[in-house]
Request: fold
Amino acid sequence: MTANDVTRAEIEDFLFHEAALLDEWRLDDWLGLLTDDAAYYVPSNDAPESDHRTALFTIADDSRRIHARVKRLKDTEAHAEFPHSRTRRMIANVRITERDGEELTIAANFTIYRYRRGAPLRLYVGRYVYRLRITGDGLRIAERRAILDPTELGALGAVSFIL
Reply:
């Protein structure tokens, strides 16, 4: 199978499945969607197209750091997310922007509603840019970039969950 064989509907199903895993805090299952060399980025909102090697990012995790992040989030001593926030993700406007051999670049808009005990409802709006790779196990996330739209992040509070 090549990138040319993958349909937008298959990409949407994959992204919807990923959103459900994250909303249900099934983080180990979510890790199973990643390639061994996966990266997770949240760039600063004043330079969303920048490179994580030359600019300050809110999150710039390689595979090792992604796994460490998940381990911390699952720890009952991690008070920033225990008990876990309740989130509900809406994924829309999914587009395949590039096909190259066994990789696809995907863009999609997101809205995440976050409910946290003792805190007001938080709304996170932005866009995802994914690099998906076709593997023997199906589509896998090689790179996941969450680009937030708000110009002022302070009102959103700590982003202690996976966007």
User: Anything to note?
Assistant: The beta strands are 34-43, 57-61, 86-100, 103-115, 122-135, 138-148.
